[in-house]
Amino acid sequence: MARRKKIYEGKAKTLYEGPEPGTIVQYFKDDATAFNAEKHDVIEGKGVLNNILSEFFMLGLGQIGVPTHFLKRLNMREQLVRSCEIVPLEVIVRNYAAGSISKRLGIDEGTQLPRPIVEYCYKDDALGDPLVTEEHIAAFGWASQQDMDDILSLALRVNDFLSGMFLAVGIRLVDFKIEIGRIYDGDFQRLVVADEISPDSCRLWDINSGEKLDKDVFRRDLGSLTDAYSEVARRLGVMPNNPPAPGKPTLVN
Asked: For the domain 6-84+225-236, what is the CATH code?
């Protein structure tokens, strides 16, 4: 497919104009970043894995009636998505304590939370994506109260879906983050799950060993990120049982 005009380049993806109005081509890069891009590397094959895994999750969400921006995968690194207006929030769902919540509240990593906790961060790299409350969101007009009700509902439905899917293959969904987009049909607006869902945006631990199968492998120098992501894909059935050498994943159609 011929490339069109580049409209945005982020840390992990590049967006191009789609072939038709209202569409965008989302290209998954091999770049890995952590600590607000203070740590950076290029890991061959990471973009391919995130592309096929995000496709897998988005299709699954669509099958249970959760709206997403996903249309179809185009090739090993690109997918076609609906153009949408991104709500300037990262929506974080936590099932177990890990990362920043452990540091903020002094909770041991791995502690199961009394119930899923939903947090919001304002999307601004220069500010370090600060944690915000619903009061901030309402005061600055980032989302209406109806939007927030719908976003909370979407986040918890995604959590139920992903938690069950990962549990079935021996993986604990510790936490994850999603982005939400607005799609307009005339005067009608609807909210959809946008961006991506992948090991880049989830914390995934092996239920028995506690082995990390997510970007913490890169953050904490725990081994091969490609091996970790390939293991997630293998367990979910989107890679063969005998995966190729690290860096050269094979797509299963």
From this structure: 3.30.200.20
